[in-house]
Amino acid sequence: MRTPVGAGVHFFYRIKKGLAYKAHENSHIKDWHILGLMKISGKPFNKTSLNMEVIRTKAASRVFHANEVATIALNKVSIQVNKGEFVSVMGPSGCGKTTLLNILGMIDHITSGEYWFMGKQADRLGERQRSFLRKKNIGYVFQGFNLIDALSVFENIELPLIYLGIRPAERKKMVYERLEQLDLRHRARYYPPQLSGGQQQRAAIARAMVASPSLILADEPTGNLDSTHGEEVMRLLGKLNEEGTTIVMVTHSQRDADYAQRVIRLFDGQVVSEDIRTKFLV
Length: 282
Ligand SMILES: Nc1ncnc2c1ncn2[C@@H]1O[C@H](COP(=O)(O)OP(=O)(O)O)[C@@H](O)[C@H]1O
Ligand SMILES: [Mg+2]
Known about the structure:
The structure is a single chain. The chain is α/β, with parallel strands linked by helices. The protein is built from nine helices and 14 strands. Helices cover 30% and strands 28% of the residues. The strands form three sheets. The protein has a six-stranded mixed beta sheet with strand order 9-10-11-6-12-13, with helices on both faces. Strands 3, 4, 5, 7 and 8 form a five-stranded antiparallel beta sheet that branches. Strands 2-1-14 form a three-stranded mixed beta sheet, with no helix packed on it. β10, α8 (227-242) and β11 (246-250) form a beta-alpha-beta unit. α5 (153-163) packs across α6 (168-181), α5 runs parallel beside α7 and α6 (168-181) crosses α7 (197-209). The structure holds adenosine-5'-diphosphate and magnesium ion. Magnesium ion is lined by residues 97-98, 143, 219. Adenosine-5'-diphosphate binds next to β3, β4 and α3.
């Protein structure tokens, strides 16, 4: 069963006798049989595998000290994101969205609390282990792109694949596939400073997606895009999520947030609401 991306169609998930089933969210429970209960991926799922947690923070705080002023950028944030979820994070400028994403991406450290990533307590791991986990599992779209100016667009996008030890011929194929999807093929040999803001953003998105990571963290991925490219990027994220990629996306756009199953709202470093759009009946 495939979800028409962006059409606002979501599924219920349910566990019965160790098997996971899904049905259209607008159906009543009694319609489940009419819809035809299906095993997800054709394999029996147990409760743990369906509900597998990718991210969990427990009272996670991040305090910045600058010029003798302490800023509580994150204040006891406790959130959980399960495998296959698409979660958007919203809130006013300065409320801690980027800080949260940096913590989740293991680029930054919490100052108190706990952060569990794929069953490992990330705040207790050393830098090498965190970096290994990040490269293996996470595609990150930075708010400021973070492209390397000295490398061409092709080389920037190729970088995660080199880290993963993928052979050159295979790398080239994978990079060109993403360049094509993000309408950048004609800019493969350009360098980031020669690109428009929108093109840089698309290159950053291509780099985050190229290795097919199991988790994509995206900080305002459509912030610099015109509406056509913005919609293309959202459709692409929706498709990746449909194929099983977990996504946490910071956005200011309600339209983009509508692609997500759940919206976490932050205010002054705290979670103020978690509006669940898909109901997990487990
Ligand atoms: N490196 C830093 N040093 C000091 N303060 C910071 C730093 N990074 C973020 N902050 C502060 O933390 C708060 C949250 O910032 P940020 O996470 O970037 O917000 P958002 O992404 O929601 O706009 C802001 O008050 C910001 O000024
Ligand atoms: Mg930000």
